[in-house]
Amino acid sequence: MKNENRNEEAVSPVIATILMVAITVVLAGVLYVWASSLAEGNTDGNLALYAISGTDAQGQPSVATDDALIMLSMNQGSDINWASISVKLSIDGAAPVTCDNPGVTGGVCGMIEYGTTGDQVWSVGDGVTISETGQDLCSATCSIDVTVTDTREGKVIDTTNGVPAE
C-alpha cells in the first residue's frame, strides 16, 4: 500500500474567499432593503406634527349646564379645517363624548373659537374654549382628558388633560 500525504483542510482558500464575499453581498442587500423601507415610511407628504395645550377655563365648575371646562390652544402644526376635527372629552375616566365644532350646536359640549375666527380653520395661535351645552358634565373638581382627532386621516392629532379651577 502506498502511503499518501493527504491535505486534511476542510475548504480550500479559494472556496472560503468566495463564500465570504457571497455572505457579505447577501448581508449588504438585506440591510439595504431594511434601511430603504424605513426611509420610505414618512415620504407620503402627510407628516403633520401638532402640539395642542390645554389650560383651565376661566370660572369654577358648578351644577349649571353651561360651564366653561377647558381651553385648547394650537402651539404647533399646519392649518386644519374644523370640518376635519373631532374633539372628545372624557370626564373622570367616563366614556368619551364628542363636542360640537365651532358654529355647530346640539351636543352635550361645544367649542367657542378664539384667536383668528371666521376662517373655518384651526391655526397656530388659535384656540377654543370647551363648554357644557345643556348637560352638567363636571359640577366640582374633575379630571378632563381631551382627544383631538383628524377625521380625514383617522389619526389622533393630540391628547391633553386638565382639571378645571376650583
Note down, in words, how this protein is organized.
There is one protein chain. It is built from one helix and ten strands. The strands form three sheets. The protein has a four-stranded antiparallel sheet with strand order 1-2-8-6, with no helix packed on it.
Shape: elongated
Oligomer: single chain
Distance between the termini: 106 Å
Main sheet: strand order? 1-2-8-6
Order of H and E elements: HEEEEEEEEEE
**Largest sheet data:** 4 strands, antiparallel
Would you count the extended β strands for me? 10
What structural class do the secondary elements suggest? alpha+beta
Mean pLDDT: 81
Low-pLDDT residue spans: none
- The number of helical runs is 1
**What percentage of the residues does DSSP assign to strands (E)?**
25-35%
The proportion of residues forming helix, as a percent range, comes to: 10-25%
Radius of gyration: 30 Å
Keywords:
166 residues, alpha+beta, four-stranded antiparallel sheet, 1 helix, 10 strands, elongated
Helices, strands, pairings?
Elements: H1 13-40, E1 51-56, E2 68-76, E3 80-81, E4 85-91, E5 97-99, E6 109-114, E7 121-122, E8 127-132, E9 144-150, E10 155-162
Antiparallel strand pairs: 1-2, 2-8, 3-7, 4-5, 4-9, 6-8, 9-10
